[in-house]
Amino acid sequence: LQGRDPDWVGRPFFAKFDPQATWLDGLKPAFGEDAFFFEDGLRAMTG
């Protein structure tokens, strides 16, 4: 995976295990988080 923002590079994120997930958009945040750290920035970039 590549981050669109250089600040995201090397920064881990944790997702709930889902054997059906095949790409990033199929993952859900783990540990009770509402969103991944990069979601707001990604949404701002892509609309």
What does this structure look like?
Helix content is 17%, strand content 0%. The mean pLDDT is 90. It has one domain (1-42). The protein starts with 38 loop residues before the first helix and ends with a helix. It has one helix spanning 39-46. The chain is built from one helix and no strands. With 47 residues, the protein is mostly helical.
Tag the structure with descriptive keywords.
single chain, 47 residues, mainly alpha, 0% strand, globular
Gross geometry: globular
Structural class: mainly alpha
Number of DSSP helical runs: 1
| String of helices and strands | H
Query: Per DSSP, what share of the residues sits in E-state strands of 2 or more residues?
Result: under 5%
Instruction: Tell me the helix content.
Output: 10-25%
Tally of domains? 1
Beta strands, count: 0
Can you tell me the residue ranges where pLDDT is under 50 for at least 5 consecutive residues? none
Rg, Cα atoms, Å? 11 Å
Main sheet overview: none
Quick overview of this protein structure:
The protein has one helix at 39-46. With 47 residues, it is an all-alpha fold.
Task: Outline the fold blueprint.
Elements: H1 39-46
